[in-house]
Amino acid sequence: xxxxxxxxxxxxxxxxxxxxxxxxxxxxxxxxxxxxxxxxxxxxxxxxxxxxxxxxxxxxxxxxxxxxxxxxxxxxxxxxxxxxxxxxxxxxxxxxxxxxxxxxxxxxxxxxxxxxxxxxxxxxxxxxxxxxxxxxxxxxxxxxxxxxxxxxxxxxxxxxxxxxxxxxxxxxxxxxxxxxxxxxxxxxxxxxxxxxxxxxxxxxxxxxxxxxxx
Length: 214
Prior knowledge:
The structure is a single chain. This protein has about 210 residues and is an alpha+beta fold. The protein is built from 6 helices and 10 strands, in the order αββαββββαββααββα. It has one domain (about 1-210).
């Protein structure tokens, strides 16, 4: 009888864990953040699954797979449910006008960035309700932890334990990284290589037990 009770309890725990996991993915999917038909938190469709089967790349974690959707677009998924954890797209040799046009498009669609780093990176960060966290949210968070004179990076702030992030609890981030300074008046500025990373650290942690945003 005790053995049966243990089995029932074990099954119940697994069921509750799966329900919590599904709820988490649904929460992220509803934010509708992605590129070229891939949405973070959303399961791959049949066409995307074919690309996965054709172009899968080995990962250092047994629970995730990576694949090239095309030469410039890499997708990271949870191997167990084929749901998207992260999207990485690159653009090469873009002229200044194209970069500024891209930024304007993102600001129109995503609102003002949460933060800018090193004059080359823009972050849009969202909480569990899909609300964009503001630069004031980030500032208040740093002030609360007395990090004004610290060299802590934004990625490190995002990755801090939940109990420390009541005012700054990121669920999804949209990062734009440029090889050149983004806002410059230099008419002879170099061509830029742009990298876009859309990811959910809570999903990555759920799938792998690790946090991967750098």
